[in-house]
Recover the amino acids of this structure.
């Protein structure tokens, strides 16, 4: 039987093309919806907290810019000629004999995390703090100050840890003074801590301890500005910005990060750690790597009776490095997600004149810096003269070592 022939079907080219276009549009719609969903999740997880954090940063109490501050119409300048204490100014020494610079952290002697132990509160009280009486300004010629050149993109920031207690209102004293040089282009960070008992010239006031400059300036709402001018004159460098944080803000930062890990070099025991109600308690830290919350990190940074103020400054630097390392460990995504909570917690306790956009740009440029390579410097205690002025313990720089340290801080190499 002859097979039936099948009719041949012809499909027009235009119809085939329309079919392919419809299939392509269906795939595009599917992938587009998936992409849109991913974008929504990303914006919700990272974008919204980042925007809220930005508004919190903008809402922080901002210090006035130098141009609007009383007595701050001049740009930061370097002092030349006769030093504040009558010692001749010296050129920066390339070997920096007065610097005590630290390398990588000492390996922990105890691998496991040891608890921080606290003893019972001692029912002791301290006498009210006596103010230091300052003499009249030194009748010497006003120093000639010139701008200190620095590498492009590098900024110098004065960090102040302020002892501001409830009974003292907005006043207080600068409990920690750290000058930080941030150089994102070279991936370099330098820290220089100054003893709070340094006796120096406070511009427009006279002579006094460097930590009293904040309280004096706060009488006119310009505590950080006066410390900036005092430190800049002492080191012979220009300081671009200031940032101050009180004890409550310090605790909030550490707690918001979930604590920090610090390598405690040796056992520390202080039976007379000062509390904020002017009493005492016991602070005890075991050697090795310790995980500290905000209160413990504050104790570790402030205790001084086990050794000296110089060791205390080194501990403060260890805490700063631990904070930086913790931020690096958490990663950019997690830090952005928690940015709103962090800024909301610390904004009432931080004041700065550094623009938020610049701060974020600098921090982003330094996000990969190894904390072990951060240059940490304090003054060699042997090069400062201990003395008693008006019944107050004080340290004098009679060798010009602070000028050398200032020059090294801002040096390009």
């Amino acid at each position: 039987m002859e097979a039936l022939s099948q009719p041949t079907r012809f499909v027009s080219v235009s119809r085939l093309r329309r079919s392919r276009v419809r299939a392509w549009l269906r795939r595009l719609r599917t992938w587009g919806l998936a992409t849109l969903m991913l974008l929504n999740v990303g914006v919700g997880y990272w974008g919204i907290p980042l925007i809220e954090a930005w508004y919190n940063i903008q809402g922080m109490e901002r210090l006035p810019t130098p141009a609007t501050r009383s007595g701050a119409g001049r740009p930061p300048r370097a002092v030349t000629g006769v030093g504040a204490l009558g010692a001749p100014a010296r050129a920066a020494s390339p070997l920096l004999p007065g610097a005590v610079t630290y390398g990588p952290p000492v390996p922990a002697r105890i691998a496991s995390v040891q608890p921080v132990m606290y003893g019972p509160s001692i029912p002791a009280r301290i006498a009210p703090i006596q103010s230091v009486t300052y003499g009249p300004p030194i009748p010497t010629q006003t120093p000639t100050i010139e701008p200190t050149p620095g590498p492009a993109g590098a900024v110098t920031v004065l960090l102040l840890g302020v002892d501001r207690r409830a009974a003292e209102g907005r006043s207080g004293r600068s409990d920690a003074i750290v000058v930080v040089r941030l150089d994102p282009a070279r991936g370099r960070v330098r820290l220089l801590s100054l003893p709070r008992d340094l006796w120096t010239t406070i511009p427009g006031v006279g002579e006094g301890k460097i930590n009293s400059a904040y309280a004096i300036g706060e009488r006119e709402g310009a505590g950080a500005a006066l410390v900036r001018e005092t430190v800049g004159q002492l080191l012979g460098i220009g300081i671009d910005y200031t940032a101050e944080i009180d004890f409550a803000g310090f605790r909030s930062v550490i707690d918001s990060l979930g604590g920090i890990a610090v390598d405690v070099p040796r056992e520390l025991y202080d039976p007379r750690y000062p509390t904020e109600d002017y009493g005492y308690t016991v602070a005890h830290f075991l050697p090795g790597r310790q995980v500290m919350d905000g209160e413990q990190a504050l104790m570790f940074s402030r205790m001084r009776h086990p050794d000296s103020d110089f060791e205390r400054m080194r501990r403060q630097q260890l805490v700063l490095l631990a904070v930086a390392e913790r931020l690096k460990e958490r990663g950019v995504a997690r830090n952005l997600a928690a940015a709103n909570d962090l800024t909301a917690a610390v904004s009432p306790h931080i004041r700065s004149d550094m623009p938020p956009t610049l701060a974020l740009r600098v921090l982003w440029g330094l996000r990969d810096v190894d904390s072990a390579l951060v240059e940490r410097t304090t003054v060699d205690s042997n090069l400062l003269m201990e003395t008693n002025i008006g019944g107050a313990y004080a340290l004098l720089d009679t060798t010009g070592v602070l000028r050398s340290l200032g020059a090294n801080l801002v040096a390009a190499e």
Notes: The domain at 60-125+141-410 is CATH 3.40.630.190 (Aminopeptidase). The chain has a mean pLDDT of 75. The radius of gyration is 29 Å. The first strand starts at residue 61 and ends at 62.
